[in-house]
Each structure stands twice: as structure tokens, then as C-alpha cells.
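Figure S4 source data
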Amino acid sequence: MPLLQPSQVGIREELADYIAIVDQKSTPFVSMAPKGKDLGNMTFSWQVDNYASPQLTGVVDGTDVTVASASNPVANRARFSNYAQAFRRTLRIGFIAETQNVAGVTDEVANGISKNLIQLKRDMEATFLCTNQAAVVDNGTNAYLTSSLGNWLTSTGSGVGVPTSTFAPASGAVDTTVSASLTETTVQAVLTAIYGATGVFRDYDVICGTTLKRAFTNLTASVSSQVANTNTIAATSVRTFNKELASDTYKSSIDIFEGDFGRLVLHPDVFIGGNNSGALSAQAYKGYVIPMDMAEIRYAKLPEVKELPDAGGGPARLVQAIAGLVVKNPNGFGMFNGAS
């Protein structure tokens, strides 16, 4: 009887020497935001101010100055504060597991550290871009939480992590239009509102979810329309695109929107969402209009790797960072804050 494969003894297992990971999600905000001065305290502060409104009155000839009635030149100066937050990931490799010959991995500890550094950066991205995380002080039960960008742009008050109404985003700069109804007029209105506060035509980085990014791309097509009729025959919706006839590439993407009062450079991000009991609730229809020089990430501890005690069970490592978000003056920011 011939030797057949099902009963063949000693066949070596074929296992490719690599591990395929397709998850390559980027963290544009953490990558682009300037790194501020090192923190010396979990609570950190900065100051904001603005100019008074123009005066159109004249001065009667011979009028003396009354020093007692002179105005306070810094009447609007305010102090903003936020908390830093600790970000932590841990790993441990069993004392037997670390001795095994694993395909695609030469060192399980090094592999685990590499993955946790990436995951820590994603934790920070999701935290800073959270739409609703308020600042929390460590009281022995609750940990320090840094006020997120969404909280800075949608809340006002006199506490830590929120601006006063004077320095909140300008009226109209935070738009609540749902992404499916986004129009050129909507985007122009956000830029107009920000320009009304800053008076500067400039580039803004828009960190946006995938749904909002698609809504910007849909601006390149004309609005579908139907001709009303009383018959039962359905009218045809027509969508028109502009394209060079000689081009053999079909392109449907908007990466830069240039309006009357600024340019929006779009950066898709999957880590925008709400804080739902410590977990990210993705909100792909949200987006932040950020003058990147007006934001900072300040570190008390840059991402580091620490060796933890090994009592015989196997090597363990701690990957951690301590950082907080600075929104220097929310009055110059905007947000696409639709409900869907």
C-alpha cells in the first residue's frame, strides 16, 4: 500500500515567519501638536487676553485727562488651567513563554513594548480629541483626567478645563449641522465666525472623523434634484461632477477646503468620540478646526518603558506617560459638532 499524506508521519508544520497587522491607524493630533514646556505640577495654567472694542468718540479741544477714570488695560485678562493625565499600559511574558521560538517574533518582550508604545499614543489621541471629557482631580478614588478638546470648545464656566464666555469659540464657530447636510455655506460660516474673532486669514488643521471627511468630498458634486410631477413615474436624480475629459483617473476627494477667510487642511482620524465610562464611543461625524500653534501637549513624563520586578513568573514592563492638553485660546478654534 502506498504512503498517503493523511497517514504520513513527521510532516513539518509550515508557519510563515511574520505576523500580519493591517491596523495602521494614524494619530495626527498627537503627531502634529507642539510639545510645550515640561510640567512641574499636575495642575498647570496659562493666561489669555484680548483687545478692547474700537472707540469712535472724539475729544473736545482743551479737555484734560481724568486719571481717576482711566480704564483698566487688562480687564479681560484671564487664567486658564488644566490637569495632566497619566497614561499607562503594562505587559508580562511568562517565564516559559519567553523561551519559545515564535514565528515572526525574535523577542516577545520587545514585541510587547513596541505594541504598547503605539497603543499608548492612541490612548492619548483619543483622550485629547474626546468630545466630552471634563477635567477631574485625583481624590484618591478618581484619577486625574485632562480636559479634552471637545470640552474646551463646548463648555464654559469658571473652573478647571473650560474657558470663560469671553474666550469661548465665537458664535457660529461651533456648528451643529449634521454631516449629511454639510454644505459649502456651512463651512464658510464656521470660517467667517473664526475670522470675526481673529481677523486672520490662515491655514487650519481639521482633525475629522471619516463621515465628516466624506461629507467634505461630497461638496464636489452638485446637489441631486428631482422634478416634481403628478404622475406615478419616478423622476431621475442627477448628480454632476467636474472632471478633465483627458484624465484617466477618477478622483473624488477633498483634502483642502479654501474659503473666503481661511484654508482647512483635512486630516482623517478614527479616534474622535465620547468618553463612555472610560471607553471611546466613536463619533466619525465630528471634527475640530485647530490653529495648531494655539494647541500644546505638555508632558510631565514623556513615554517611557520601565522594568517591573520579576519574582520568577516572567519579565514585566510598564509603558507610561503623563501629559495634559493646552488650548491656549479657544476663541480662535472651531468645531463641526453635528449629532450625526
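Figure S5 source data
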Amino acid sequence: MQGTKNLTEGPIKKQLFNLALPIMGTSFIQMAYSITDMAWVGRLGSEAVAAIGAVGILTWMTTSISYLNKVGSEVSVAQSIGAREEDDARAFASHNLTIALMISVCWGFLLFVLANPIISFFKLDTEISGTAVSYLKIVATGFPFIFLAAACTGIYNAAGLSKIPFYVSGSGLIMNMVLDPLFIFGFGMGTNGAACATWLSEATVLAIFIYYLKKKKRLFGGFPFLIRLKSRYSRRIFQLGLPVALLNSLFAVINLMTASTYGGHIGLMTMTAGGQIEAIAWNTSQGFSTALSTFVAQNFAARKKERVLGAYHTTLKMTALFGIFCTLLFVFFGSEVFSLIIPEKAAYEAGGVFLRIDGYSMLFMMLEITMQGLFYGTGRTLPPAIISITFNSLRIPMAIGLTAMGLGITGVWWAISISSMLKGIVAFIWFRILQKKIL
């Protein structure tokens, strides 16, 4: 197929690494957007970080919903490539972009209009709430950039060209790193400056993607960005992507609602900033998981199941090693790592406790995300969604019970950590039960 890489032949390890490293780089770049904002806004104090944290649940949900078309692209386009169906690959690419635009416009408009009542739900101080509302209204207008860029990333990943999203996202990060201090301190815009810098950077990323798809790196001989939707393709995209979007959205809602309820603005700040640091582990495993998903999708469609198992075992070994490293880093050096983001003593001491408890679950989180990639590649996105939604929902009664036992906010952190362990174990067992049927 024109402009794509064939993953059904050649050395498995080399192909996985060539796919995974740029995807990990792209994930770290996307994480660095938030960390850059947190690092600069952290100089304004924990209240400013809490304001961004209140919006964090919504931007996190936005990214989660955009997975509908990111994963929808990665699996549907990759399986079409593996089956050598170029017309379907073009159609799926166009449908994912069109659906992404439609959903993002509706979602961004909704959050812009309802910014005040949504932020008031967190019961923050009046000044913090006002800052959060202003920040949310700015970033909400840029949500179409996030959705469309996610769909473009999925299309390129499916084609085996994961380096392109890495380079494009890297350009946006450099721009964001330059604009953040300029807007926040140079122009005296505070948290609104961070929002404007991110907005401009995300718009630039989408503009570069459009240039690549239309002019520089035409895939499948070219395809339209907007198309009249057909039920066959739309249904398949929602079948693949909706469970992923739901599980990630619910994950965001439960984590930040629980932290805000039991920890006030310090709990919200700890969960938000700590989540960004935890993303070091999450994004690494997610990079391998996405590469595994793309690799499996092409080979599963081409009926080369021995290559599917070979890629799975290779990915599992790599993520396990990194999970052990992250456990040691977070358990023994959590406060030091957290202080790099927010130097306020009360903040990094609270953050250190969160990272230590969360660190015990790193290996299991790696296992869960690796299994997700394997399930996604075979077109079975429902089992990971059931596992994630079930055990994330259990975090609420677990947190209530543990805090009632006198653990306070640390009870919330233990609920998060224990549920992560259970998700990894159950995902592994579920696949082992279905392995003969799938492969």
C-alpha cells in the first residue's frame, strides 16, 4: 500500500522497537505539555496548580474521548492494511477524522458554555474556581485540535509511520516550552497564559499534520478529510474505539473526583501533578502497547498468528523491566521527583506519599496496558473496558472504607494502587482463558 510499512514480514523485535520508540516519544511529548504548564504554574503556588488540576479532569476526559478515533484509526486502518484492502484503509481514515471533528466541536462547546457549574462541582475557593473557569474556557476552544491530531496520530501509527507523529508533536512541544514562560510571566497572564500557549501549540501541531497528509506524505494515494458517513465504517469505529474512550474517561473522573472529595485542593493538586509524573511509566508502557496493537492488527488480519505471539512475549518482557524500575524510583525517591514539578514543601511531601503508594502497582499497571494492546490488535476492545470500568468503579467504595479506617487521603492512594494491581492480574488471566479461541 502506498506510503505504508508492511509489518507482516521481517524481524519482530526490530519492527516493534521501530514502532514503539517514536510512539513513546510522542506520548512523552504530550505529557510534557502538561508538565511544562505544571512546572511554570507551580511557581505561582499550589492554588494555581489546583485550578489547573480542576480543569485537568476535563482535559484528561477530552484526551480519553479522543481515543475513540485514535484507537479506531490504529486498529481499523491497520487491519485494512494487513488484509491489503486499500479502499477500506482510505475510508476508515476519512471516517475517523470526520467523527473526531464532530465530537470535538460538540464537546468543546458544551464545556465552554457550562464552565461555571462544572468547576463549582469541585467546591474550591472562590478565587481558585474563577481561575479554573477562565482557564477552561480558553482550552475548550482548542479541543478540536486535540481530537483531530489524535486521529492523525492513529492513522500514521496504523501505517507503521510512528516517527511522523513524534516529529510533529515535538515541534508543538518546543513551541509550548518557549511560549509558557513568555505568556505566564512575560505578559503577566498567569494561568491563562499557560492555556493560550498550549492552545497555540496544539493548533500548530494540527496544521503540520494537515500539511503532511495533504502535501508531503500522502497515504493510500490520498483521502478526503471530511466525508459523508457510512454506517458500515462508523459502526466499526465506534465498536473499536468507544470502549477505550469510556474506560479512560471513567478512570479520569473517578480518580480526580475522589482526590478532590477527600483531599481538598492539596489532594486535587497531588493527584493531578502526581498523575503527570506517573505518566512516565504509563506512557512508556502505552508506547509499547500501541506498537503491539498496530503490529498485532496487521498480522492478525494477515493470519500470521505466530508473529502475534512473538510480539506479545517481547513486549511483556520490556514493560516488566521498566515497571520494576519505576517501582524503585517512586517508592524510594518519590518526594525528590515530585519536588522537581512543585517546589512547595507541603506539596512535594504529600506528592511523595502518593508516588510511594502508587509505585507498588507499577508492574501490574504495565501488565494491564500491555494486555490492552494485545486485545485491541485483535479487535477485542471490550474486555479491557470491562476490566478497567469495573475496578476503577471499585475505587470509590474502597476509598470510602479505607479513609473511614483512619487512613485519610492515603486511603484514596491505596485504593488506586490496589485496584491497579487487580486490573493487571485479571487482564492477564482473561487473555490466557481466551488465547486458544483468539489465536
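The two ends are 26 Å apart (CA to CA). The chain is about 85% helix and 0% strand.
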